[in-house]
Amino acid sequence: GAGVSQSPSNKVTEKGKDVELRCDPISGHTALYWYRQSLGQGLEFLIYFQGNSAPDKSGLPSDRFSAERTGGSVSTLTIQRTQQEDSAVYLCASSSGLSPLHFGNGTRLTVT
Amino acid sequence: DQQVKQNSPSLSVQEGRISILNCDYTNSMFDYFLWYKKYPAEGPTFLISISSIKDKNEDGRFTVFLNKSAKHLSLHIVPSQPGDSAVYFCAASARSPGTGGGADGLTFGKGTHLIIQP
Q: CA of A43: which chain B residue's CA is closest?
């Protein structure tokens, strides 16, 4: 497809389990961003990848969160030992640098 | 500490009239501002942006005004149409590239739900 693709679209998990969220950016887009949106809140920036460069992880909420981007394309966001406060919509966006961000439809994560 | 504030959670406007959405910011380092529109179950889509060297940017029915001294920006939609009903997010960047915010990302407000009434 032509847009940013995220999977799964919905994920329900039990507290304490690990989850992996996937983002497939628009082909050729070198910049990739992860955000999350908790209920009633704005989008919270998590992490940024530029090409194959190592990201600055300081925006991640805790050390249970990690992200990687393989071959400068697909990215995965992993949350270990999920907590109820991790419940949110996780959004991925990509851009070619100077273009505006193109967002995927997000993954709705529910931790029970 | 919210650096980008949208103080109206919702706004109702009659079709054909002007919609004005407001946004205030506190960080004087912000130099690029964007508006995104979001429909339910979809990701935000880019609407319009403005650099701090300008005070107005227009694109069709959408105009963004920036008042740097007041740290305030507004989005005007005229005339408002039913398809404009959505949540509108104001966002700001202090880093290049302004369109994405680079390593700091964009700082978003909580959004305003615009409802266009027939």
A: B108
User: Does B49 lie at the interface with A, CB-CB under 8 angstroms?
Assistant: yes
For an interface test with A, give the residue of B110, B112, B113 to mutate (most A CBs within 10 A): B110
Hey, what amino acid is at A97?
G
**Would the pLDDT of A1 be above 70?**
no
Residue B108 CB contacts under 8 Å (≥ 6 apart), including other chains: A35, A42, A43, A44, B4, B36, B89, B90, B91
* Short-list B98, B68, B28, CA closest to A98: B98
B7 at A interface, C-beta within 8 A: no
Give the minimum alpha-carbon distance from B101 to chain A in angstroms, rounded to a whole number: 9
| DSSP-assigned letters across all residues of B18-67 | -EEEEEEE--TT--EEEEEEE-TTS--EEEEEEETT-SEEEETTEEEEEE
Return d(Cα A67, Cα A46) in angstroms, integer.
9
Count how many Cα atoms sit within 13 Å of the Cα of residue B80 in the half-sphere of its side chain.
Answer: 21
> Is A1 near chain B, with CB under 8 Å?
no
Distances (CA, A) of A93 to A26, A32, B87: 9, 6, 18
pLDDT tens, position by position, A51-63? 878 888 888 999 9
